[in-house]
Design goal:
The complex is a heterodimer of chains A (97) and B (584). Chain A is mostly helical. Helices cover 69% and strands 0% of the residues of chain A. Chain A contains two helices and no strands. The N and C termini of chain A lie far apart (106 Å). With 584 residues, chain B is α+β, with helices and mostly antiparallel strands. In chain B, the strands form seven sheets. In chain B, strands 2, 3, 4, 5 and 8 form a five-stranded mixed sheet that branches. Chain B starts with 20 loop residues before the first helix and ends with a helix. Classes of the chains: A mainly alpha (97), B alpha+beta (584). Chain A: Belongs to the FtsL family. Chain A: Its main location: membrane. Chain A: It is a single-pass type II membrane protein.
Amino acid sequence: MIRADAFLVALVVSSALGVVAAQHQARKLFSELEREQARAQGLEVEWGQLQLEQSTWAAHARVEKIARERIGMRPPAPGQVLTVEGGHESAEPGLPK
Amino acid sequence: MRKQRPLPFNHNPLLKNGLPAWRSRLVMSALLACLLALVGRALYLQGFNNQFLQAKGESRYARAIEVPATRGRVIDRHGDVLAISTPVRSIWAIPSDARLSPADARKLAELLETSVEELNGRLATSHDFVYLKRQLSPELAQEIAALKLPGIHQQQEYRRYYPGGEVMAHVLGFTGVDDKGQEGVELAFDKLLTGTPGARRVIRDRRGQVVEDVEAIRPPHDGQDLVLAMDAKIQYLAYSALNQAMQTHKAKAGAVVVLDVRTGEVLALVNAPTYNPNNRTNLSGAQLRNRVFTDTYEPGSTMKPFIVGLALDRGKVEPTTVIDTAPGRVSIGRATISDSHRHGPLTVAEVIQKSSNVGTVKMAMNLAPEEMWRMFSELGFGTPLDLGFPGQASGRLRPVKTWKPIEQATMSFGHGISVSLIQMAHAYLAFARDGELLPLSLTRVDTPLLAGKRVYSVETAREMRYMLELAAGPGGTAPRAQIRGYRVAGKTGTAHKLEGGRYANKYVSSFVGFAPASDPRLIVAVMIDEPSAGQYFGGTVAAPVFAQITEGALRALGVAPDAPLVPLQVAGKAEQARTARGGR
């Protein structure tokens, strides 16, 4: 009888400790999750800012300016345009369609 | 020493006196009554009315936190970002709590980029709440938070950025400081773009850290991204071409709209003067006005093709029918309508090519007013287009019963009727699409409607295309609309402006056209308001803008050229010849 009681008490105590440990673990994991979520949000914000930056750098006005002034590009003259039809005919520059 | 025997309680000598029995019973029942009262109260609090205390307890540790949701992005048809929200912070204060030492005040003022006097002035109000500065960058806000000043608080907000700046301003519109749409697409699609913030209930520990998620009350919904039909490249082309023309011709205002003929999408929409949506201080009404949608103008000769089209459709004329426009005048009642150049006998095609008022009026007077009115309203004049854009104008199309013959005559060449530029561009779809109209769309159309609303027969539309190509050709009114490698078609318009009920010597020059003429892909409509550098004809002011935009846009879209390139091959010479002759 006493032995059974002792066994049950031990069981209860260990289970209670288990609950405490599990709760602690849960809290720890949860705060980690929180941190990661905050990081994810931070990254999201950064991504937005990077997109903004990208479209600012890639603004057509800027691209055109650089292409014209720094690299010296210009629209092709009509004679330089080659129209390829159907992919197999050989087109010559300036040939009427 | 005699050992003292313990005295049992019931043999206490004091008790021997024999107290009256009722006293003990009284005490007993008083105690019992107290006990009962306590038990009853406990039962009441724990059993019957437990919500109150539970709520009180919960409020000590549980908090409902708002989960912010971001506003959707606006992107162009190829995925370029046109508008995006990023978080910023606003600094606010409770003035009665904010007692700052002079050193603190100086530091804060420095971070907020104001003077100490102004800061103190703001804090000296009797209000409980005052914004010190809105929409600060998160980094700066962090520095302010690090000062740990009493009574100074922060709140997270979103700020909208428009990387396209001036170029896209009128299409996109902008949002207010509360991230709600106020103009343009931002307002038109506000519901779609706006996110709904969520909420969740959490348990916080003593240090204010969240230790447990109890429940999600509402999940947050971020706003959806809006994919516009706009092509950022064509938009930029249109913007730079229009601005160039505005400067050359010292114009008051101008607008351009580019439509995709196949889908009815609005590929570009530009207004001048414009503004920078990222910095909206000192905005004037003129800058804000979206002339494509909200302004109407008398279209002038760009209206003529519709009348001719109707006359062809009803079998009143053939393209080769000769109409005598001599002596360049025609009288309707007491009024006289004249041409700017005298022509003589012209075929119907030549009436369009030379833009003869007299010829058009003679055709219009052969049509019933009801027929003309029905055609105008089928083309969408007089009612705003179904685009959901804020502040769309409907234009003025008077009820047919009130028309007098002179009005029917002037309407045929675009006076006495007013339209918006987008309505005009939309109506030209009828010619570009073999007689059918499509509803326009500001958002990208992935599955275009195949059949539209028929206004003209296929034959009429094709004949009109041929005539409009003549008008943009060497003998027409707008040879400067021509571009290399593609056949173009279109019509000029030069209208006197109405001022106080009279036609003033101010003009609206316009050009509406499409290309390639053999299989139209784009409609470009250009309107220049009050060009004042000497030239004002649509053919010299608006047509070159059309040419510049169309040439770039067709190349950007990779449309195959449909015109022989040979005559222009020797670029220098041909270019000279073209400008000298006013055409190729």
